[in-house]
Amino acid sequence: MNRRAFTLVELLVVISIIGLLSTIAVTSLSSAQMASRNARRMGDMTQMAKALDLYYNDFGSYPSTGGLFIGGIGTGYNERPYVDTLNASPANCLDLATPSWIPGLTSCGYMAQLPRDPGTAKKNPNSKDSGCWNRTNNGYLYVSDGTNYALLAYCTPEGTLPGSGNFYESHNPQRTFRLCTSVTQCAGGWY
User: Fold this and answer.
1) How far is CA 42 from CA 2, 27, 34, 168, 174, in A?
2) Tens digits of per-residue pLDDT, 55-93?
3) Are 180 and 150 in contact (CB under 8 A)?
C-alpha cells in the first residue's frame, strides 16, 4: 500500500508561510488605518477652517478665545462641548449660554457639530513622538485673538507627518498637525 501524505517538515513550512503572510497583511492594514485617520484629521481641520472663513466674512473677526487653547470634551484643554447652547431667548446666534470649543460656529449655522478627533482622550502608541504614547489629554484644539487663529490636532496624528505644507507644525513636527489663518501666521508662531 503506497500512501502519500505530508511530512512534518512540509506542514511546518506551510504553517510558517501562512504566519508570515498574516503578519504582512495585518501590518499593511494597520498602516492603512493610520493613514485613514490622519486623512480624516486633515479633512476635519480643512472643514473647520472653511467654516471659520465664513464666520470671518460675516462678523469681521474670528471667534476669539482670548489667547487660550480651547478643546472639546476629552482633550484636557479648557474643555467645552461640541455644539453651542443658546440662551433661552437669544438676541442673536452669538448669545450663548454654553459656547462650544469654537464659539459661534454651530449656533450661527456654519457647522452642525464640531468634529471630534478619532484619537481624542486615547493613548497614541503610533505617534513618532514618545511624549504622546501615554497621553490621554489630546485632540483638536483652537486658539484665536480674533484676527488670527490656529487649529491643532494635538498628540493624535500617527506615523510620519508631513515635513512641510499647510499642516506642518514647526514647533512639534512629530506631535501635531496645525492649520492657521495663513501659512505665514503659522510659521510666525503668533500664539
Assistant:
1) 65, 23, 13, 11, 15
2) 999 999 999 998 888 998 888 888 899 999 988 888 889
3) yes
Strand partners, 154: 139, 176
Q: What is the 3-state secondary structure (H, E, C) of 61-129?
A: CCCCCCCCCEEECCCCCCCECCCCEECCCCCCCCCEEECCCCCCCCCCCCCCCCCCCCCCCCCCCCECC
- What is the rounded distance in angstroms from the CA atom of residue 45 to the CA atom of residue 82? 14
Would you list the domain boundaries of the chain?
A: 59-188
Please provide residue 97's backbone torsions phi and psi, each rounded to the nearest 5 degrees: -80, -45
**Spatial contact of 31 and 159, defined as CB atoms under 8 Å apart:** yes
Q: On the CB side of 87, how many CA atoms lie within 13 Å of its CA?
A: 8
- Residues 6 or more apart whose CB falls under 8 angstroms from that of 139 comprise 71, 72, 74, 75, 116, 117, 119, 120, 121, 153, 154, 156
pTM of the model: 0.80
Using one digit for the tens of pLDDT, what is the confidence trace for 141-177? 999 989 989 998 888 888 777 777 778 777 777 778 8
